[in-house]
Amino acid sequence: MSHDLHESLRDNVRILGDSLGRTIADDLGQGFVDKIETIRAHAKQGRQGDSLQQRDLIEYLRKLPEQDLLPVTRAFNQFLNLANIAEQHYRARFRRVEDYKPGSQPVLGELLKRAEQAGNSPRKLVETLANMRVELVLTAHPTEVIRRTLIQKYDAIDDCLTAIEGSEDYPERGTRAQGRLEELISQAWHTDEIRHERPTPVDEAKWGFAVIENSLWQAVPDFHRDLDNLLLDTAGERLPLDAAPIRYASWMGGDRDGNPNVTSRVTREVLLLGRWMAADLYLRDLEQLKTELSMWKANSALKAEVGDVAEPYRELLKRLLGKVESTRDWAKAELDGRNYDGGPIIETRDQLYAPLLACYRSLCDVGLDTIANGALLDTLRRVAVFGVTLTKLDLRQEASRHAQVMEELTAALNLGHYRDWDEQQRQDFLLAELDSRRPLIPRRWECSAETREVLDTFKVIAKEHAEALGTYIISMAAEPSDVLTVALLMKEAGGQVTLPIAPLFETLNDLDHAGDVIDQLLALPGYRKLMRNGQEVMIGYSDSAKDAGQLAAAWAQYRAQESLVNVCERHGVDLTLFHGRGGTVGRGGGPAHAAILSQPPGSVNGSLRVTEQGEMIRFKFGQPDIALRSMEIYACAVLEATLLPPRTPEPHWREEMDQLAKVAHAAYVGVVREDPDFVPYFRAVTPEGALGRLPLGSRPTKRRQDGGVETLRAIPWIFAWTQIRLMLPAWLGSGEAFSRRLEQPGGREVLQEMRNEWPFFGTYLDMLEMLLAKADVAISAYYEHRLVDEPSLKALGKQLRERFARLEEAVLDILQQDALLENTPLIRQAIDVRNPYIDPLHGLQAELLQRNRDADGAISADLSRALMVTMAGIAAGLRNTG
C-alpha cells in the first residue's frame, strides 16, 4: 500500500475532524472542545500502555457534570461517523482495496485472463457471465443505527471531499467545497442522531428503494458498461442485452419471521411502492431518451410500428412514456385506496423492454451503433436488472406458523390433529391434497387471526405477477412436510404464481440433516412436478453460530452445502444456495470475495443468493463507486468459483475439522447452555436490557418476550457482546479446539497446512484474526468491574478473558506472527485510529448503564439519549456490529 494512499486517508480524517471541532466550538465554546481533547489525549496515551492515563480517563469521565454527558457522547459518535466517511471515500477512490490486503481482490480483467489461461475459451467466459445468477437480497437490519437524514448528509460530505481533492488547479472550487463541508458538518451536529420511533417495515422498504434510486440506478449500467468493455477486449463481443449477472431482491416488507409488524397489507403496500418508484425512475430515463433520440433513420420494423413519422424513435418513446406515466398513476391510486380510471399500464418487464429493444435494433440496423450503445443501452440494462418492480420481494415465515394453519384446518374438518401426526402421515396427507382438484380450505372458514394472516399473505402472492416476487423462505425448517405445507397453501390460494420454496436450515441439528431432508423431498414424485427441476436452500449463519458456536457452525454449514450439492446432482436438479450472512464474523460476515471462494467446490455453480443487511448495504452499495466495486467483487468471486473452483479438501483435513468442531462445540455449550452463571452474567455486563429501548429496526429484539438467551434474536445477541468488546459469540470454543490440537504431535503443522492450502480454513482464520484485533478484554473487564457485584459472575468473566487470551496465543502460533494483523496494516491502522474515540464511549456507557440500573431505568431523558448515542457510536466505530 503506497505512502500516498495512507496520506490521503489521514488527510481526510484530519479535514473532517478539524471541521467538527470548529462546529462544536461555535456551539458549545472552545472550553468544551478542550474537554473533548483532554478525554481523547487520556484515551490515546492509555492505548499506548499508560495505565495511569487509563485510570485518569475513567476518573475524568466519572466527574463530568451531568449536562456534559450527552454532548460528549455526541462528539465522539460524530467523529467516528466522519472517520467512516473518510474510509468509504478512500475505498471508492482506490478500487483495489476491499479488505486492505494488497493483491487479495482481483479485478475482473485479470480474472478473465487467468480463466482463459486455464483453458476456458472466450465464448465460455461470455456464456458463464451471461448465465450467471447472483442475487443480492437487501434486508432490514435491527442494528442499523444511523438515521436516513444523516446518511444523506454524510453522502454529501463525501462529495465535498471529492471536490476538495479535485480542486488543485481551481482554488476557488476548493474554497466553495470547504464551505459546503463546514455547513454539512454543522447540519449533522445539530441533527438528532437517534430516532424517537421505531421504523415501520414500510419505512425500511423505502430506505431500501432509496439505495436503488441514489446509488444502484447509476452503478448498475456502469457495471455492465465496464463488463462490456472487458468482454469486447477479451472475447470480441458484448454481454447479451438481457443478461443480468447481478440482480437485487429484498426482504423489507416480506420478512415476517417473528415480526408481527409485517402483515399481508404491508407486503401489498411495499409491492405497490416498488411499482411506483420503478415507474418514476424509468420516466426520467425515457424523458432523456426522448430528448436525445431525434434521429430519422430507422429500420422497416420500427417504421411499421410507428407509421410514417419524421422522428420514429421519439414517437415510440412518447407512447411508452404515456404507459409508464399511467403505471405510476395507477400505483399511486392503489396506495391511496382510490379507483384508477386511467389508460393501460405496464404490467411486466417485457412490456417495457420490447419497445426499447425495437429502438436499439433499429439504430444498429441503420449503422447508428454508437448511439444505440449509449444511454439507450443503459436503460435496457436497468430493465434487465430491476424489471418493473426494482427488486423481487421474498417472503419469509416460520415453519410453526404454517403447521398451526394445518392444525386448525384438520381439526375444523374433523380429519384429526395435524400436530399429532408423524412425518410420514403429514407427507401422505399433503401430497394427496396437492394432487386433489377440489379445494381444501372452506370458503367461509372462521379461523384464528394468526391463521387468517398467513392465508391472506398467500392471497397477496396469488394476485401478483411472478416477476414481482422472489422466494418463499421457511425459517426453522426441519422436515419435508415444512416445504410441502407451503406448496399446498400456495395452491389453495388459487393463483397462477408458484414461487420457489426455500427451507432455511439454521440450527446445528437442522444443518446436519439438510441433505437428508432435500433428498427425501426430491424423491417424492408429487414434489418434483411442482418444483420444475430447481431447488433453492437457505443456509443460516447467525442462528447456527448462536446455537453451536462459530467454529462448529462454520463446519456444519460447509458440510451441509457439500451434502446438498451431492444430493441435487444425484437427482439431476439445479441447486441454488442462499446464504443468510450478516455483517459480523459471528453471523458469517467478512469480505465477500474470500467468503465465496471458501465455499465447497460445486456449491457456487454460476448461481448464488446472499443477504446484504442494513449497515452493510450502506457500506457496500450506498454510493455508486462503492456499489460498482462491490458488484465487481461478487461477479469476480462467482466467476472464479465456477470456472476455477477451489480444491476438494483432503480427507485428513476433514478429520481435523470434525475434531476441532467437536471440541469447540462442547466448550461453547459448556459455557452458554450449561453454566448457570452465564445468562445472569450476560444480562449484567452487556447493555442487552437497554438495547430493547433503542428504536432500531421494525422487528422485536426477541422472538418471545419471556425466556433466556435462546429467545434472543441472533443480531441483538451479537450486538450486545460487541458493545463491550468481548465479541464472545464469534470465538468462544475455538481457543480450546486450537490450543488442544497445538499441544498434540503434528498439530501445528497440519493446522498451518490447512491455513495455507484450504480457502475455507484460511478464510476462517483471517476472520478470527480481525475479530480478535477488534475485541478488547480490558474494556470488557471494566464493564464487569462497574456493573457486576456477585463473585461467581466475576469468576466467570475472568475465565472468559483467560479463554480469549489462550485463543489469541493459539491463532498467532498458527499464523506464525508476533502480533495480530501484521500482514494487513491498514485494518490495524483503521482500528488504532478509532480506538481513542471509542474508548471514552465505552467508559461513558458503563457509567450510564450503572446509573440507569441504580435509578431502576428512570434516568433523565438526556442521560437515556446519551446511553443510546454511546451504542450508536460504538457501533459506528466497530462497523460490523450485527
TrEMBL record:
TM stretches of this protein: none
Entries under SUPFAM superfamilies matching the protein: Phosphoenolpyruvate/pyruvate domain
Co-factor(s): Mg(2+)
MF GO annotations: phosphoenolpyruvate carboxylase activity
Gene3D superfamilies: Phosphoenolpyruvate/pyruvate domain (1.20.1440.90)
E.C. code: 4.1.1.31
Assigned protein family: Belongs to the PEPCase type 1 family.
Gene: ppc
PROSITE patterns: PEPCASE_1 (PS00781), PEPCASE_2 (PS00393)
NCBIfam families registered for this protein in UniProt: PRK00009.1
Catalytic site positions: 141, 546
Organism listed in the record: Vreelandella gomseomensis
Protein name as annotated: Phosphoenolpyruvate carboxylase
Domain of life: Bacteria
UniProt keyword list: Carbon dioxide fixation, Lyase, Magnesium
Reactions this protein catalyses: oxaloacetate + phosphate = phosphoenolpyruvate + hydrogencarbonate
Assembly with partners or alone: Homotetramer.
Entry function: Forms oxaloacetate, a four-carbon dicarboxylic acid source for the tricarboxylic acid cycle.
InterPro entries documented for this protein: PEP_COase, PEP_COase_bac/pln-type, PEP_COase_Lys_AS, PEPCASE_His_AS, Pyrv/PenolPyrv_kinase-like_dom
Pfam families, A to Z: PEPcase
